[in-house]
Design brief:
Elements: H1 2-24, H2 28-57, H3 59-80, H4 84-89
Helix pairs in contact: 2-3
């Protein structure tokens, strides 16, 4: 019975999310390209910055520095990202 309930739930989820995915299909290539570029750049900066902090100041500074970097990244993402579904409705 659990398997049947899971299948029904999956179908509902697919039906619900299918409409949202249609809104972003036109920009999917751009979003994937920007995501890949930002991921590579973020890994490069994090490895350099983290290595410097670790070698110069130790693990405590590394934790604080990467924590601050994570908070800044979340703030930048929150301020500058646009949800295509909300933007389309407005």
């Amino acid at each position: 019975m659990d398997i049947l309930e899971n299948r029904v739930g999956e179908r509902r989820l697919l039906r619900f999310s299918d409409g949202k995915m249609n809104c972003a299909r036109a920009n999917r290539g751009t979003m994937v390209s920007v995501s890949a570029a930002a991921t590579g750049l973020g890994q490069l900066i994090c490895a350099s910055f983290g290595g410097f902090l670790l070698l110069q100041y130790g693990y405590n500074a590394l934790g604080v520095g990467l924590g601050i970097a994570g908070i800044l990244a979340a703030l930048i993402f929150h301020l500058f990202s646009v949800d295509p579904i909300i933007a389309k409705d407005s």
